[in-house]
Amino acid sequence: MRHEIVEIAPPGPPGDPRKHWPQHMREEFERNQFSGVVGNVLVSETEAVRVWHLSMPPGGWLSFHRHVLDYFWTTPTAGVARGYYEDGRIVDVHHYPGETRHFHHGLNEHFVHAIENVGDTELVFITVEFLQGANPPIPLPEAVRLDTGAGPQGAEAQMEMK
């Protein structure tokens, strides 16, 4: 098993790195480049970490988002993810079950990309972001948080009742 990266398009010119992208993709980048939504659902958050799940069927899409925190992801599935990067690169990444990657961001460093499932299998990723790093976390909309159905008492109160 190996992590393989196939370049589809190189970085674009410095003045307009995404010039070769279709207009709708460039517009989506502009709308979402500061989003901190790095998965489908935020399943857990403490003072130390955010834990995300990402599930993408074939043809699925996770819009542009910005990483500013140290984080890692792991995947239990094999598949092919096409990445669209801030510098204009487009690459296909071949993933294998159990693959795990770690990333570090120093003060004022970031990474912006979007992901498309171009394979024929569902892609699943679990991402853990570390909140106590060099950069403050990006605020998130409530809609991305897991709805536990716990009502006003919360999930912890429900667990105590069982």
How would you portray this structure in words?
The structure is a single chain. With 162 residues, the chain is mainly beta. It has 2 helices and 10 strands. It has helices spanning 23-32, 154-161; strands spanning 4-9, 41-45, 49-56, 61-67, 70-74, 79-85, 90-95, 100-103, 111-117, 123-130. The chain has a 5-stranded antiparallel sheet with strand order 1-7-6-9-4, with helices on one face. A hairpin with a 3-residue loop joins strand 2 and strand 3 (49-56). The longest helix is centred in the N-terminal third of the chain and has 10 residues, at 23-32. The model is unreliable at 151-162 (pLDDT under 50).
Beta-strand proportion:
35-45%
* Shape annotation: globular
Q: Strand-and-helix sequence, N→C?
A: EHEEEEEEEEEH
Radius of gyration: 17 Å
Strand order of the largest sheet: 1-7-6-9-4
Helix content: 10-25%
How far is it from the N-terminal to the C-terminal residue, by CA?
43 Å
The low-confidence runs, each spanning 5 or more residues with pLDDT under 50, are 151-162
Could you give a short account of the major beta sheet? Answer: 5 strands, antiparallel
Number of strands: 10
What are the salient characteristics of this protein?
162 residues, five-stranded antiparallel sheet, 10 strands, mainly beta
